[in-house]
Each structure stands twice: as structure tokens, then as C-alpha cells.
């Protein structure tokens, strides 16, 4: 039975997921495959490279650096989150990504992007770390309006969360039968229609299929949450999520709030260790 790890996005809310996954790594949990969306891809790749604490470290160190995320970066480069700084300067110079460890880990790591021409999700396995895989990670996390379209693999792509925020059904479809799903919104959260759709329609008018998906995104998301909960009720999935709404913005610049979201993820993981062991059929410390 193949086990999977499913990581929702949510921009800086992804620090909650990083807290959960760091505890999973510390406790020796492993998965046959993982799939990340947006921040779930950009931060989740550290699971395959085995770098505990790295996502927290660079986010707290650089959340106030205008090269990382700022209006200045958006006006200067077209990307709110600076592509060169986030996907080259940090991983190759300031806080090195462990390419060798990533490449040697047999776990598959998939990312989800959205094809701007069709509005459909694109799923890409990134078994090795190289310049192209970094572009897939970037594409998955490239939020509409504040990011340039990323061209990679013959596609023109934006944020995977537009079309498939919680890719549990896809992972099941390719053989992952038992999935730990990390969400970044608390139980009971219901996504509402996007208030920025008038601006989206103006800025992205060349991509009607993408706009149609974006207009329906709240319905897609709410159905995916309901599906994930139904799979948990059936015993095929285990959901971990914040116990309350995270006190942070999608582009949080306060290191204390970034750290608090991460710590909350660690707390939730710790509270659920026995449930996770049981779900993945691993022995408990008490046994």
C-alpha cells in the first residue's frame, strides 16, 4: 500500500505545514510520495531533501527583505515574491538546498500548477533537483496578478491552488491509497468568491479558461475539503489542520507571526503522533 503526503498551499500559511512536516521528519516518518501545491511545493521540497527547520529559517530570516517579498519586487520584476532571490539566491547561496539528499531520496515529489491556456491543473513529478525543477516549484507558487507566468515543460503556468488546492483525488488516482493531508485552514472554513475577480478579468483577459476556473475556485475548493473529509471518514486519509485561523497574512512580514504559525504546526503534529502512527501502521512508542 503506497502512502502519500498531500500539502495544501496558502502562501505564508505554509509555515504551519512546515512545522508539521519537521516533526514528521524528526520522528522518522517516511512516505512513498508527496504532492505540494503553491507553498506546499515551495516549502514541501524540504521534506524530500530532509532539511528540518530550513523553511522556517529562511522565511524568518528574509520575510522583511524586499528581494524576498515586496511591492518593490513586484514593480521591478513583475513578481511579488522575487523569482531570482527565492529560487536562486536563497537555495544556491544564502541557505543552500541539499540537492544531493533530495536526489538520493526515493520518495516521489509532485507539484501542482495551473495551465493558463486551459485553466486545468498540471501535475509534475520532480524526482531530481535542478534548474527546471526549481521552475516547477516557482510556477506552482506563482499567484495570479502578482506573478509573471512561468514557462516550463512546454506549458505556461501559474499557481496550482487555482485549479487543485488539495490534490488528494489525483494522488489516489495514481496509486497512493493512504494519504496524510495537511491543510492550512481550520475545520469549518468555507472559501468565499474571490472579490478581486473584476481586476483578474482585466489583467488576465487573454486567458478566458483560466478566468473561468478562478471564478469557480471557491466551489472547487469547498468540494475538495468535503471530499478529503469523506476520505478521512472512510479511513483512507488523515487530515491535520490548524486548530484556529492562523493570525497572519498571506504575505506575512512579521517573523514572530511566521514562527508562531510554524510552532502551531509542530504542536498539532505532536498532539497527533499516535494517530499518525496508527494510520500509517507504524508502532507506537507505548508498544
Largest sheet: 8 strands, mixed
Structural class, by secondary structure, is alpha/beta
Termini, distance in Å?
Answer: 23 Å
Strand content: 5-15%
| Low-pLDDT residue spans | 283-287
Q: Would you count the extended β strands for me?
A: 8
N-to-C SSE string, H for helix and E for strand: EHEHHHHHHEEHEEHEHHHEHH
Structural shape: globular
Q: Whole-number average pLDDT?
A: 96
- Provide the gyration radius in Å: 18 Å
Helix percent reads 40-55%
Assembly type of the shown chains? single chain
| Total number of helices | 14
What topology does this entry show?
Elements: E1 2-7, H1 14-26, E2 33-37, H2 39-42, H3 45-48, H4 54-62, H5 71-77, H6 83-94, H7 99-104, E3 108-115, E4 121-125, H8 131-140, E5 150-152, E6 155-159, H9 168-173, E7 176-182, H10 197-203, H11 208-215, H12 217-233, E8 237-240, H13 255-271, H14 273-279
Parallel strand pairs: 1-2, 1-7, 2-3, 7-8
Antiparallel strand pairs: 3-4, 3-6, 5-6
Amino acid at each position: 500500500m503506497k502512502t502519500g503526503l498531500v500539502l495544501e498551499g496558502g502562501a505564508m500559511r505554509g509555515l504551519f505545514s512546515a512545522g508539521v512536516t519537521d516533526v514528521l521528519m524528526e520522528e522518522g516518518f517516511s512516505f512513498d510520495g508527496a504532492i505540494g501545491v503553491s507553498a506546499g511545493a515551495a516549502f514541501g521540497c524540504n521534506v524530500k531533501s530532509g532539511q528540518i527547520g530550513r523553511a522556517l529559517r529562511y522565511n524568518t530570516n528574509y520575510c522583511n527583505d524586499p528581494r524576498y517579498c515586496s511591492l518593490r519586487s513586484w514593480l521591478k520584476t513583475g513578481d511579488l515574491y522575487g523569482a531570482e532571490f527565492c529560487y536562486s539566491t536563497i537555495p544556491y547561496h544564502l541557505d543552500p538546498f541539499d540537492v544531493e539528499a533530495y536526489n538520493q531520496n526515493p520518495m516521489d515529489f509532485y507539484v501542482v500548477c495551473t495551465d493558463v491556456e486551459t485553466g486545468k491543473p498540471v501535475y509534475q513529478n520532480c524526482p531530481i533537483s535542478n534548474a527546471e525543477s526549481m521552475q516547477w516549484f516557482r510556477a506552482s507558487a506563482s499567484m495570479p496578478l502578482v506573478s509573471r507566468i512561468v514557462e516550463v515543460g512546454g506549458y505556461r503556468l501559474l499557481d496550482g491552488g487555482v485549479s487543485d488546492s488539495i490534490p488528494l483525488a489525483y494522488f489516489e488516482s495514481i496509486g497512493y491509497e493512504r494519504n496524510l493531508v495537511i491543510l492550512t485552514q481550520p475545520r469549518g472554513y468555507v472559501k468565499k468568491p474571490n472579490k478581486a475577480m473584476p481586476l483578474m478579468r482585466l489583467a488576465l483577459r487573454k486567458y478566458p479558461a483560466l478566468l473561468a476556473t478562478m471564478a469557480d475556485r471557491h466551489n472547487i475548493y469547498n468540494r475538495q475539503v468535503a471530499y478529503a473529509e469523506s476520505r478521512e471518514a472512510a479511513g483512507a486519509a488523515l487530515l491535520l489542520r490548524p486548530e484556529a485561523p492562523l493570525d497572519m497574512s498571506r504575505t506575512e512580514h512579521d517573523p514572530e507571526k511566521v514562527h508562531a504559525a510554524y510552532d502551531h504546526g509542530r504542536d498539532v503534529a505532536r498532539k497527533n503522533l499516535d494517530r499518525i502512527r496508527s494510520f500509517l501502521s507504524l508502532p507506537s512508542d507505548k508498544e
